[in-house]
Amino acid sequence: MTEVTAAPATAPVSPAATARLLAEAARAVDAPDLVLAVSRNGVRTVHTGGSAEPGPVPRELMAYELGSASKPYAGLLLARLVAQGRVRYEDRAADLLAPGFPVHPAVRRITLRHLLTHTSGLPGLPADFYPQAVPRWSTDPYGGYPADRVVRSFLRARPRHRPGTRWRYSNFAVSVLGHTLAAATGTPWEVLLHQQVLAPLGLDATRVRPGPDGTDAVGHRRDGTPVPALDTGGFTAAGAVRATPLDLLTFLEAHTEGAADSPTDSSLATALTEVTRPVLRRGLRHAHTHTLTWFQHPTPYGPVLFHAGATLGQQAFLGFRPGTGLAVAATATRRVHRADTFVATAYGLLAETR
Questions:
Q1: What's 182's DSSP letter?
Q2: How many Cβ atoms from other residues are within 10 Å of residue 103's Cβ?
Q3: Can you tell me whether residue 132 is helix, strand or coil?
């Protein structure tokens, strides 16, 4: 099914042409449920498909698990709290979480910026996470590791590298960021995210817990077997967001040129600008650029900012091209595998489309 809205007369690419592009791209992805959605200056084109029979709720209105694509929401939340003067990027996480508690000197130096930008020196997950996770790796690896355990693991951590010196992707670090912001504001993470990001942007179909029966997409293993809804345990900030593809477009549109001027609260406009600004480089010849929360790549049509995510049975991709009004959101309900084409297909729509 393809849903097309009317395009303004000045649009360089027609919605019909975009619809054909999405339909062609969808043929490269094998998943029970698939949604590819594009916004061009607010004009949306949505393609839905997949190998499964459609259910009573249209695919574009189902809530999908974002996994690590939840992190841009955490980044925008931090940027807004900084713009409001409630925290600073250079605040030390341990001081906010447990003032006066004795920690390793390297842990004492870890700031909120380090946690968000994967430069804290923390591993991807706590060392003691794996013994409890391995026996249920394919069904519920995170649910048995609650928030208080994440915090305790952070306070007794021994980082391998001095904070700020190396980049290492870390779900652990971003989860600690979530608990730190909750402690600093005296507000639970879920409430804080809703107050500061979801409600102001009108993201009524975005949440961090499963919704009413029939409204959440069901993930699948590679063989097509359904998997249970993800329980992120204490790692909420790193991967718990669920959203409909239409809400994903709304979130992305807020980051594109001109949208940052629309929020009535200046702190939100400031935050939307801040999270698109490059802050570090890494990799061979420092070729990889990152903002506070997005990966950034050069393309023939200008830089693209994006983040992908995967859970036990679902995948998501979010991306936009600053200054052009182009945004791409994609979701699929099959677990990622070695020959998977989902991310490459979604990224191609963002980086290779005029």
A1: H
A2: 21
A3: helix
| Residue 257 identity (one-letter amino acid) | E
Summarised one tens digit per residue, pLDDT across range 262-306 is: 555 799 999 999 999 999 988 777 778 999 999 999 999 999 999
Q: What are phi and psi of 156, to 5 degrees?
A: -105, 10
Q: Nearest-CA neighbor of 230 among 175, 149, 174, 312? A: 312
The residue type found at 298 is P
- Number of Cβ atoms within 10 Å of the Cβ of 324: 18
Closest CA to 245 of 62, 84, 108: 62
Integer CA distances (angstroms), 354 to 20, 323, 341, 348, in order: 14, 13, 21, 11
Question: Of 224, 254, 289, 313, whose CA–CA distance to 76 is shortest?
Answer: 254
Residue 14 class from Cβ within 10 Å (0-12 exposed, 13-18 middle, 19+ buried)?
Answer: middle
SS3 2: strand
Residue with tokens 């804080």: 192
Question: Read out DSSP for 100-123?
Answer: T----HHHHT-BHHHHHTT-S---
**Model pLDDT for residues 106-159, shown as the tens digit of each residue:** 999 999 999 999 999 999 999 999 999 999 998 999 999 999 999 999 999 999
Concatenated DSSP letters of 8-55: PTT-SS-HHHHHHHHHHHHTT---SSEEEEEEETTEEEEEEE-SSPP-
Q: Which is more confident, 152 or 337?
A: 152
**Predicted local distance difference test score (pLDDT) of residue 12:** 62
SS3 75: helix
Residue 16: both structure tokens together: 């019909």
pLDDT digits (tens, 9 = 90+) for 215-268: 999 999 999 999 999 999 999 999 999 999 999 999 999 999 644 445 557 999
Tell me 193's DSSP state. H
User: Which residues, 6+ apart, have CB-to-CB distance to 337 below 8 Å?
Assistant: 222
